[in-house]
Amino acid sequence: MPNLPIEVQEKLSNDELFCVRSALASNPTISLEIMEKLASEDNWYVPQSLAFNPNVPEYLLRKLVDIAPEAVVWNPNAPLDILLKLRLHEDPDIREGAVISLKSRRGEL
Q1: Is the backbone of residue 57 left (phi > 0), alpha (psi -120 to 50) or beta?
Q2: Can you list the alpha helix ranges (DSSP code H) found in the chain?
Q3: How many CB atoms are located within 10 Å of the residue 28 CB?
Q4: Mind listing the pLDDT tens digit for each residue in 23-62?
């Protein structure tokens, strides 16, 4: 998705179809204001898509980890303390993702 004018982002963020909002959330060029709005979505798929977005700021990833840890664990900018916590998660897929993500960022440890 190319850079979308803020008016288009706003319109798409209010679309009645969650799949449209979810696609918008995955767009790395959306504004911070739209990211914040989508992070509070009721439909789980939208914040999950946002959590995969590589341009989501750390403070939103910290919020999204409680909603969609299975997505945050794969975000290349996930804070290391979150990844360390997620390697102890009850879900084995999330634990495995955390270990893989930590190994890929070994130089940061």
Answers
A1: beta
A2: 6-13, 18-25, 32-39, 45-52, 58-64, 69-72, 80-86, 92-104
A3: 11
A4: 999 999 999 999 999 999 999 999 999 999 999 999 999 9
Q: Work out the percent of the chain whose per-residue pLDDT is above 70.
A: 97
Task: Calculate the CA dihedral of residues 41, 27, 61, 104 and round it to 10 degrees.
Answer: 150
Residue 84 identity (one-letter amino acid)? L
What distance in Å separates the CA atoms of residue 20 and residue 22, rounded to the nearest whole number?
Answer: 5
Q: Which two tokens stand for residue 25?
A: 């959330």
What torsion, rounded to 10 degrees, do the Cα atoms 95, 101, 104, 105 define?
-110
DSSP one-letter code for 57: -
Q: What CA–CA distance (Å, rounded) separates 98 from 42?
A: 25
How far, in Å, CA of 35 to CA of 55, rounded? 9
Compute how many other C-beta atoms are within 10 angstroms of the C-beta atom of residue 100: 14
CA distance linking residue 5 with residue 69, whole number of Å: 30
